[in-house]
Design a protein that fits this description.
By secondary structure, this protein is an alpha+beta fold. It folds into 5 domains: about 220 residues, Rhodopsin 7-helix transmembrane proteins (Rhopdopsin 7-helix transmembrane proteins, Up-down Bundle); about 70 residues, no CATH class; about 160 residues, Beta-Lactamase (2-Layer Sandwich), CATH 3.30.450.40; about 60 residues; about 150 residues, Histidine kinase-like ATPase, C-terminal domain (Heat Shock Protein 90). About 60% of the residues lie in helices and about 10% in strands. Strands 2-1-5-4-3 form a 5-stranded antiparallel beta sheet. The relative contact order is 0.05. The N terminus is likely disordered.
């Protein structure tokens, strides 16, 4: 049997009507001992529930064929009049029936319309009317029902919207139930009027609204009715609202297409197809829009929920993002940025963290490869202000004025942030009154101004993120200390080998005094010396390049001599290019500086293609000479530059000790200089070594001597 068969719909209608009759009768019986909780309308509601139950039974009986249809119409009229009286009694619960003069005439007018409807129904069932007159009577009948349902909905709206705050708990549930009942009837009779016939499929589902009405009337007298609230999740609300929007769009599209088919004349079908094609194309473009989805979420959160955020869901998402591990997991810096960006559906972000000298440097970037971040991303004065106040910066607000609210003169947003139109917000990460990082967020699809709820959530999340970063830094330092312990243990074995060699040489020297004239001893001595020499040279080859970061003596040297010595080391390499540079006088240790530059150039050659040049140059830079080693090799990520490049025992080379870059930086520091690096994956790296000029060193020494004399 087909699903749209009349027998199937009749069976469904009978089953639902009987269910509705049982539900309303059961709620009516349970309402009797608690009828006083319904704001003075308990008795009227009890009577209306039994009328509704009787109406449901009559509809089922008409479907079976045991009673005439006029009985169901009579019961429906009695049901509507009963609920109109309930609404009037609810108005009287707080005295509004005496202050709102139109209420009583409206209720009486709606009851009169119901009586007119009943009269027309009776005439249609008993009088032999022609088809034209019968069709006209049907339209009037439906219009009368529409008038009653619209009037009932208006009364229900005014009942709840105009009540006092104290009266709302008693009125919330019955008004929802009546709104559902009459809203269903409104749609039913609208369809009936437009179609010109009774929609049996839709009418079969009327009892669903009856069951919902009974449920809400039962809630209105429940013991815990004041605590009962509808709390749908944000996901369910968003999906439901999206489906309603899509459904309304489809209904509107079909309605316009139907109108075009009536009004289009000879081109009706062509116009209808053209409209449907255009409307479908617009839907495919607009509905998947991230900006539209963001706007819907913000609108729903603003109007349907007490709070903008579902804090439980946000916390679970945050912990999932931060706690994700495994080989394929993103680095901690990227997870930190993503966890904060997800709060506002921001598509990208940066993490800035204090460098070796305390200045803010790029620590990680997430989905934001195009933004250029300078080596020093923010001044120390601005960092101090953010650390002290925890001020969350809305960059759009800052762009509109010269300074942040209540900011002193030392606070200044970097120009590179203000110049990039995508940058949207800066969130400081403070842990125990110490700034451990800054998160910079890119502008989301639907940007808005921060309010108190955004700021409170950001402060909580930023504190938690800061604790993760601080804990990670502590664990990294502990792991580094453990690696140093392991390295010291290995050095102990090396020292043991050296001690054995020294003992062997001492013994050989003593024996040579006694047996040097013997040929056999001399032969054995040569073998021993050769073996010991090979062992010692192998040991020196392994350890010779890894010193303790100290330099023997600082002296005045010329940069041209240093560049010449480095060039000699790479005279057989076609990749090395020494840029013509000025000859500057600097204060350094020549051997240590050459060792640093040779190491950096060699790393650039190793990281580059065989035909890619590696440039070495030197230029004056204030009080320093700036050596630059520039390559176009594979480059390094911000995560590795910050957490791996200058960490001992971290190496990208197979079999490497991982202390070359660490030692180079320590040697430069020992010469009162500084080593910086800028690198981009796939583009290359630039190492900058700053060494003090001799004039600057002399000036510093003179100032120091004068201070000592004054003291």
């Amino acid at each position: 049997m087909a699903w749209n068969s009349p027998d199937i719909w009749t069976t469904i209608a009978i089953a639902l009507d009987l269910t509705g009759a049982i539900a309303t009768a059961a709620v009516g019986l349970s309402l009797w001992p608690r009828r006083h909780r319904l704001a003075g309308a308990g008795g009227a509601a009890l009577f209306a529930l039994f009328l509704t139950s009787l109406w449901s039974l009559s509809v089922a009986a008409v479907a079976v064929g045991t009673v005439p249809p006029i009985l169901a119409s009579l019961c429906e009229t009695a049901r509507n009049m009963g609920w109109l009286f309930v609404v009037f009694r609810l108005f009287g619960g707080d005295g509004r029936d005496t202050t709102l003069a139109p209420i009583r005439p409206v209720v009486i007018a709606l009851c009169f319309v119901e009586i007119l409807h009943l009269g027309i129904d009776y005439g249609m069932g008993t009088l032999p009317l022609p088809p034209e007159l019968r069709s006209l009577a049907f339209e009037f009948n439906v219009l009368f029902r529409l008038l009653v349902t619209v009037g009932g909905l208006v009364l229900v709206h005014n009942l709840y919207a105009g009540c006092s705050h104290d009266a709302r708990p008693a009125l919330r549930w019955p008004t929802i139930g009546l709104a559902v009942l009459w809203a269903f009837d409104l749609n039913l009779y609208t369809i009936s009027y437009l179609a010109g016939s009774w929609p049996r499929e839709v009418a079969a589902l009327r009892a669903v609204a009856t069951v919902i009405l009974a449920m809400f009337i039962g809630l209105s007298v429940a013991a815990n009715r004041d605590e009962l609230k509808i709390r749908p999740s944000r996901a369910v609300t968003f999906q439901t609202f999206s489906l309603l929007v899509i459904g309304a769009y489809l209904v509107g599209m079909v309605a316009v297409a139907q109108w075009l088919s009536y009004a289009g004349g000879n081109f009706a079908r062509l116009l209808e197809l053209a409209f449907l094609t255009l409307a479908s194309a617009i839907a495919l473009v607009v509905l998947p829009s991230r900006k539209l989805r963001s706007w819907l979420k913000v609108t729903l959160a603003k109007h349907f929920f007490q709070h903008r955020y579902d804090y439980r869901e946000e916390w679970l998402r945050f912990t999932r993002t931060i706690g994700s591990g495994g080989e394929n997991a993103a680095p901690l810096g990227e997870r930190v940025v993503k966890s904060v960006a997800d709060l506002f559906e921001s598509p990208a972000g940066l993490l800035l963290a204090p460098g070796e000298q305390g200045e803010m440097t790029l620590a990680a970037r997430w989905n934001w490869p195009e933004i250029e971040v300078p080596g020093v991303a923010m001044s120390l004065q601005s960092q101090s202000y953010l650390e002290r106040t925890g001020y969350i910066v809305d960059l759009d607000e800052v762009r509109g004025r010269s300074a942040a609210p209540d900011a002193d003169t030392v606070f200044e947003i970097p120009e590179w942030l203000l110049a990039d139109a995508r940058s949207w917000a800066v969130i400081p990460l403070v842990h125990f009154e110490r700034l451990v990082g800054l998160v910079v967020l890119a502008r989301p699809q639907f940007a808005r101004t921060f309010d108190w709820e955004d700021l409170d959530l950001l402060r909580v999340i930023s504190q938690q993120v800061a604790s993760y970063l601080a804990e990670n830094a502590s664990q990294t330092a502990l792991a580094e200390a453990n690696r140093f312990d392991d390295f010291h243990r290995r050095i102990a074995f090396v020292m043991h080998d050296i001690k054995n060699l020294a003992s062997q040489f001492s013994l050989l020297a003593r024996n040579a005094e006694l047996h040097a004239d013997k040929p056999a001893f001399r032969a054995d001595m040569l073998v021993t010396l050769r073996n010991s020499s090979e062992k010692l040279n192998a040991l020196i080859a392994r350890l010779g390049r890894y010193g303790n970061g100290a330099v023997e003596k600082l002296e005045n040297i010329r940069t041209r001599d240093v560049l010449a010595a480095v060039g000699t080391s790479f005279e057989n390499s076609a990749q090395f290019v020494a840029v013509d540079s000025p000859d500057l006088a600097i204060t350094a240790n020549r051997h240590s500086l050459e060792q640093v530059l040779v190491h950096l150039v060699q790393n650039g050659i190793d990281a580059s293609d065989p035909h890619s040049p590696v440039f070495l140059s030197v230029v004056p830079d204030g009080l320093h000479a700036r050596f630059e080693v520039l390559d176009s090799g594979c480059g390094m990520s911000a995560e590795f530059v910050r957490n791996g490049l200058f960490k001992p025992f971290v190496s990208t080379k197979s079999g490497g000790f991982g202390i070359g870059a660490y030692e180079a930086r320590e040697l430069v520091r020992a010469m009162r200089g500084r080593l910086d690096v800028e690198s981009r994956e796939g583009l290359g790296s630039r190492f900058v070594v700053r060494i003090p000029l001799s004039e600057a060193t002399n000036l510093y020494q003179n100032l120091t001597k004068n201070d000592q004399k004054v003291a």
